[in-house]
Amino acid sequence: MQNSTILVIGGAGYIGSHMLRCLRDAGRRVLVLDNLSTGHRKAVGDAELIVGDAGDAALLDSLFTERAISCVMHFASSILVGESMSDPGKYYDNNVARSVTLLNAMVKHKIPYFIFSSSAAIFGNPDYTPIDEAHPARPINPYGRSKLMVEQMLEDYARAYGLRYGSLRYFNAAGAHPAGGIGECHEPETHLIPLVLQTASGRRPSINIFGNDYDTPDGTCIRDYIHVCDLADAHLLLLHALEGGMESAAFNLGTGEGYTVMQVIEEARRVTGCGIPARIEARRAGDPAVLIADGSAARTQLGWHPALSDLQSILRHAWAWEKQFARAGADFPAHSHIN
To answer: Which of 22, 96, 164, 223 could, after both became Cys, cross-link 232 (CB 3.0–4.6 A)?
Structure first.
């Protein structure tokens, strides 16, 4: 299906824009659907962008009628855990209800493949680490529950309608494209690595460390970081596998190794050459001490081998991106592009 089109929903966002570049580098035709509520038009570059919502049934009907779309990749979820606690309705509307509308449109038009951007948040507090696909799913917040609900819906749609899908559970996406032009740009920003680098560039006065009394080597939480380009590669491999006849499946994406918060900060000091002031704060409720993925299923079944997910590469690419912001003094560097 090389000549068919891949619809990238949320392609103007962080992971979606990297997926867009990965698909185009692989010679695939792409179409972006994004309502630009959190995405950035410039991140799409010269790819075709339709400004619209994945919950707009009439728009989806038109797209699926007029375009030869073979696969939908869905990156348009709301992702802030804290916000999901204070405004769960937003998460069940955007992440769940609009996914129902999307899936129904796909079934109506016989779109064969769906790739879903899921999350390690479906697992909740882990019983063991590394976390494999057999780990019980017990999400502890509406964000995680919304992701799990979509995964459960996909099982039902596959069984009833023959839709073939893949769900990819990310642990901690990080980094930026090595060639520049696209990277992480959230408002508000909640992820550790961009916050650390914003402190290094002077856009923040310090970085907060939430708890230093966990049962870890230095008392700070351990997380498994995966380079955003390695995530995109996993999606492309999953697309190839589905097109090649693989049955529907879900995979955890991570390196199987973790870094403490302090290790991230210390390595960022080395990469940037900056002091990066840090402040110890109280623990946040619901933060597990260790979250590490068992990514062996993706390696054996998809042939996925993350190439850029060592901490130094992640920080080096993210720092190059952050320096563009520091120079531009704007929400999104004016020279951003996708080749």
So the answer is: 22
